[in-house]
Specification:
Blueprint: H1 4-15, H2 20-28, H3 33-44, E1 61-65, H4 70-79, E2 82-84, H5 86-95, E3 103-111, H6 112-115, H7 121-124, H8 127-132, E4 135-136, H9 142-149, E5 157-161, E6 166-167, E7 173-180, E8 186-192, E9 207-212
Parallel strand pairs: 2-8, 5-9
Antiparallel strand pairs: 1-3, 3-9, 4-9, 5-7, 6-7, 7-8
């Protein structure tokens, strides 16, 4: 059975820009050396590097969304050192093709086990199931605003955006993921969300952000 989070971690590690020498210098001898050594031990032992640390996302977070182009959103993230990956930038260009009007929206964090026992994307994103919980899928363009707004995300945490998956250039469908590394570097990535693979499923402790129905 495919573990989707394992794919995400592998994807994140593959995008990090460092050589073994700079990795040692930056991480293993830096202020967060103990945390990185622990993470590397877990990686070598085949354990999850990030152990589902709660991202301190308050229920009912309300922010303004809309009105900014994709380039403006990327510039805003870069200005705050919130590194969007290449895939995330491509995804954002599609998701935010039409910025829309500025409006307020509320969001809530929930774990997969709070929505469905199967871990299947089709059940997790089922609109009727979510409606009964007072939730709905995020608009893909919401996520960049969430990344910018969630400045105090707890280090070592990450979560996904419950949104309609987007396919990039014939590759697997993707959704946004929002995280903060152990050393406090925040990021926005485009995580694989392959609904066509019946073996792919989310872990019970995986966290997602949903829109709250007004």
């Amino acid at each position: 059975m495919t573990d989707i989070v394992t794919k995400q971690i592998a994807g994140i590690l593959s995008t990090l820009d460092f050589t073994p020498e700079t990795m040692i210098q930056r991480h293993l001898t830096g202020p967060h050396a103990d945390a990185w050594k622990s993470a590397l031990r877990k990686l070598l032992d085949g354990e999850p590097v990030w152990a589902h640390t709660a991202p301190n996302f308050p229920f009912g977070t309300t922010i303004e969304v809309g009105g900014m182009t994709s380039d403006q959103l990327i510039e805003a993230m870069l200005a705050q050192k919130m590194g969007p990956s290449g895939y995330a930038r491509h995804l954002l260009a599609i998701a935010n093709a039409e910025p829309g009007e500025v409006h307020t929206a509320s969001f809530a964090y929930a774990k997969v086990k709070d929505i469905t026992e199967s871990g299947q994307t089709s059940e997790l994103f089922d609109r009727q199931r979510l409606k009964a919980l007072g939730l709905e899928l995020c608009r893909p363009s919401d996520v960049a605003y969430l990344r910018i707004a969630h400045r105090d995300q707890r280090p070592g945490s990450f979560y996904f955006a419950a949104m309609p998956p987007i396919t990039l250039e014939g590759g697997p469908a993707r959704i946004f993921s929002i995280g903060n590394d152990i050393d406090g570097r925040t990021w926005l990535h485009a995580a694989i969300c392959d609904e066509t693979d019946p073996g792919s499923r989310w872990q019970a402790e995986d966290g997602f952000v949903f829109r709250v129905i007004p």
